[in-house]
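User: Please predict the structure of the protein below. I'd like the answer in structure-token form so I can feed it into my own downstream comparison script.

Assistant: Understood. Taking the following sequence of 67 residues as input:
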Amino acid sequence: MKDHDCLHEVLTITEAAKMWQKEVSTLRHRLRDDRFPKNGYRKSGATTLIKRSAMEQVYGPPKEDFQ
């Protein structure tokens, strides 16, 4: 994996919601319900960060992609 690709593997919860066409509130509920792997997300201040691989594990491939 190239260095610049690593940045695209971590998404904000808003980016993930857009890519998978989900509501941000739905993702927050799934995080609280323990549907995501524990190492698949974390908080950074007020921002929730989610690994692309964790989203794919829970929801499959994204509906739309952006970089």
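That's the full token string. The mean pLDDT is 90.
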